[in-house]
Amino acid sequence: MTPLGGRSYDRNVPGATQETIARLEGQGHRVTGSRRAVLDAIAGTVTPFTVEDICLAAPDVGRATVFRTVKLLQDLDVVCRLPLGDGGVRYQLSQSEHHHHLICESCGAVSEFSDPELDALIRRNARREGFRLDGHSLELYGLCPACQPGG
Amino acid sequence: MTPLGGRSYDRNVPGATQETIARLEGQGHRVTGSRRAVLDAIAGTVTPFTVEDICLAAPDVGRATVFRTVKLLQDLDVVCRLPLGDGGVRYQLSQSEHHHHLICESCGAVSEFSDPELDALIRRNARREGFRLDGHSLELYGLCPACQPGG
DNA sequence: CTACATGCAAATTGTTTGCATAGTT
DNA sequence: AACTATGCAAACAATTTGCATGTAG
After folding, report:
1. Which residues numbered 94-123 in B keep a CB inside 8 Å of some CB on A?
2. What's the predicted TM-score (pTM) here?
């Protein structure tokens, strides 16, 4: 993937779309208008996004196609599914580095952070239980600075 | 769904049902036959369970009531929802201590662990980002000992 | 007796599939 | 031209809701 050394949150990098298109071609998938539209929608979305977000951002693409495309992107490891605590299904670009989510229960904002020390500790716990770790997800729920009383 | 063998946290403790009934009464909720049946079903289930599991174990209780009861138990903090990677929804008794989940992507087994050091690190990250932390969820995905090649 | 709980079925919501057609390569 | 992808609608699956009836307190 694009070696974006970029910021942790806000918008997805524009280059990601181009690179994904290259990957589609490389794997023998066709680069269609619908797929471009979905990729653009994803690139313009604050992570993490829902299928609904994409449908709104790419209104000319049918729902079924959005679902099919998101699934395809999952298979290509371009996006990954994010199991949120509220049961809602979200996706986000699979980024090179691990990050976790801070979810504001008041305004719904999602920001990200990463902490190598935390990841190391997680790996250690998995090892202790005899698990072969493939991935993990960590979400913190609370109030963002702007939503705190007196903040 | 393959039960996870040989661990200490396989079955739910019998006392939990009685305690939950006491809590229901204490909060002004009625203790009905359906609710008892659902609680018994949960008590007899290997964690984590699905709504379907309960419907099978308590066939005389209508589906809607099972959903309503599980939601009530969530509100009472008797059970908690588990966001699994495959999108399936499971629940389990909220255990006394804070814990995290190890989810086997092969057999679906879910085991638990807790690590105060990890929790402390999580709190520190939230503080650094200015978040007022209310809760968090952490799931690790991988292969359990039994499902590892050569394991 | 009164209000809350239940069951059933209809209504929602979220996701997948069948099929004829449009679009890529 | 060959074959894949799309859109639409119907099919599904999971969960919620309206309402008349049952029942715990």
Report:
1. 100, 102, 104-105, 111, 113, 115, 117-118, 121-122
2. 0.78
